[in-house]
Description:
Largest sheet: 7 strands, mixed
Number of strands: 7
CATH architecture of the domain at 40-173 and 212-240: 3-Layer(aba) Sandwich
Number of helices: 9
Shape: globular
CATH superfamily of the domain at 40-173 and 212-240: Vaccinia Virus protein VP39
Bound molecules: S-adenosylmethionine
CATH topology of the domain at 40-173 and 212-240: Rossmann fold
CATH class of the domain at 40-173 and 212-240: Alpha Beta
Strand order of the largest sheet: 3-2-1-4-5-7-6
Radius of gyration: 17 Å
Oligomer: single chain
Order of helices and strands: HHEHEHEHEHEHHHEE
Helix content: 40-55%
Amino acid sequence: xxxxxxxxxxxxxxxxxxxxxxxxxxxxxxxxxxxxxxxxxxxxxxxxxxxxxxxxxxxxxxxxxxxxxxxxxxxxxxxxxxxxxxxxxxxxxxxxxxxxxxxxxxxxxxxxxxxxxxxxxxxxxxxxxxxxxxxxxxxxxxxxxxxxxxxxxxxxxxxxxxxxxxxxxxxxxxxxxxxxxxxxxxxxxxxxxxxxxxxxxxxxxxxxxxxxxxxxxxxxxxxxxxxxxxxxxxxxxxxxxxxxxx
Length: 246
Ligand SMILES: C[S@@+](CC[C@H](N)C(=O)[O-])C[C@H]1O[C@@H](n2cnc3c(N)ncnc32)[C@H](O)[C@@H]1O
């Protein structure tokens, strides 16, 4: 619990990013992302605040299906959680789960569970080149993986992928002592059972060490991006057009 959190630990890598990572542990990690995200990423709140209003606008204006892009989708659970809610509420939507890691894309595709998500293994720049646009471009727990140039490129590319009235929302952990201690304690209790054989605990702690504080992120974000603080120990880097649906 005595980790140095005074600055981003950019020199420390997550085990799941190792191309030689144990395949079974990686698969268990993707499988467990859903449970972790249900607690810390709160897909229901994301749906109500940012997705449903845009889906409603599409429906009310007769302008077709809502298009969502999840960048760095990992195991795809956030996409599945949004797909279930959109279907429940009768909103037609097209969701793309994008990741640069083919292992994540393969796993997510094999565990679509009828959600009907589109999977793509590519960098965001490829979608920009293809002229794709989305109503909602989001990421979750991706920013802290990126170096300075990677972050700048990600923000520029995702902003260019936003349709008129569109939103870009990069969600991540906020580096804090409280968050680190809470995650360490919570996962310690589950380390021998639910989280056994996965990278969740170790990579989660590394992620917190690599993450930005809200002030650090605001300092490197280009003009037009807004940093929001959330609970528990969350942050969001957000860009939306002036006439975007709130
Ligand atoms: C910690 S996982 C998060 C997965 C998922 N978003 C979630 O919240 O469970 C980070 C994911 O981002 C992917 N990733 C990292 N850099 C990326 C980039 N530049 N473009 C797309 N995906 C990226 C990794 O391959 C990994 O699957």
